[in-house]
Amino acid sequence: MKYRQTLVLIAVAILACVPWFWGSRYILHIATMTAIMIPLAASMNLMLKIGQLSMAQAVFMGIGSYTGALLTMRLGVPPWLSVLAGGVLSAALAGLAGPIFLRVRGVYFVLLTFAFGQIVNLVMQDWTSLTGGNSGLYGIPKFSIFGYRMTAIQDYYLLALAFAALTFFALRAVEKSDIGAILESLNDNEMVSRSLGANALSWRIATFVVSGFIAGISGGIYAFYIGFLSPDPFSFRLLVDLIVMNVVGGVGTMFGPLLGAIFIVPLPELLREAREYQLLIYAGVLIFFILFVRQGLVSLIGLNKRGAR
Amino acid sequence: MGELAVMKAFVIVILGGLGSVPGAVLGGLLIGLSESVLSTTFDPTTALIASFAIVLLVVIVKPTGLMGRSAR
Predict the structure, then answer these.
(1) Which residues of chain A lie closer than 8 angstroms to B7, CB-CB?
(2) Which residues in chain A have Cβ-Cβ distances shorter than 8 Å to B53?
(3) How many C-beta atoms lie closer than 10 Å to residue A167's C-beta?
(4) Predicted structure pTM score
(5) What does the pLDDT look like over A158-203, one tens digit per residue?
(6) Most buried among A39, A70, A97, A225, by the most CB within 10 A?
(7) CA B62, chain centre distance (Å)
(8) Which ipTM value was assigned to this complex?
(9) Can you give the three-state secondary structure of B49-66, one letter per residue?
(10) Nearest-by-Cβ selection for B49 from A112, A122, A236
């Protein structure tokens, strides 16, 4: 089982190198967007691991990107610091909302996070003096770190890729550690984990905070890469995409969101020729996976077996 | 297309309680009133924010909705 995982990782690494040599700007853009989406999908997967579908991930990304962009634009904070601040703010918001939201479970948690996300998104649209509202926020400066100013798209690809890899391996490590076992038990049987002394609510809040942080940082990277922000990319559509990535990839392991993002983000681009049928094919793929490949792509490659760790 | 209508219907049903028809009527009345009053006094976005805030509160305080049967 271990060699299969290694094989998949090598394949992904090779795939990640292709855009470098291809060099086309268009391919690089898709690859960068994929690399930005992987941590986001992974953050949603982290919440799914404890049995909660969080509809707040899109808005955490939005908060991260607006914080990152605004701190640098208005206050002249170094970009790397403001991206970090965006992640911390998202995490703080998750920490504040978590104790209230995570008391409820199942569909009610989905509703709560959905309403919360909608409110924050509407505030982004309405607070025009800060965010520019629906007409957007222009002129976000280029990202710079250690005095190096990133202008080429390759730089951003590398940055997004580095964060995606960091998130993936960090979450993999958590998954395999004792903490991973605790999180899994929260989903499987909360009573058992409680009787063993795990504070269920605290663990849930911690998970929510971490997932908010990850989503916030990818939002910051997105803001500096795109250079233009409006509330629209952080709306319901993004949530649907993230859920689709997790369903298609598979929820059980971190390989799920990884493969899901790699499969789903470029899909609309592949279907560009058949513009009218784009949504139809997209929906078809989703229905096919839900009906016939319940465990997602990971089960096709045989990565999801229990005891595979 | 029709996204806003679906979203509002969703909000109303949660507010009234899933599976309860009288709840949907009550929820519709409440949301409709609050939206039209707030749209006139403030602006439509504020009204929408208020609708979601009401839902947020209801789900936190009474997850089954105003007239929903208790889940267990």
Answers:
(1) 118
(2) 115, 119
(3) 24
(4) 0.86
(5) 889 999 999 999 998 888 888 888 887 777 777 776 776 667 788 8
(6) A39
(7) 13
(8) 0.79
(9) HHHHHHHHHHHHHCCCCC
(10) A122
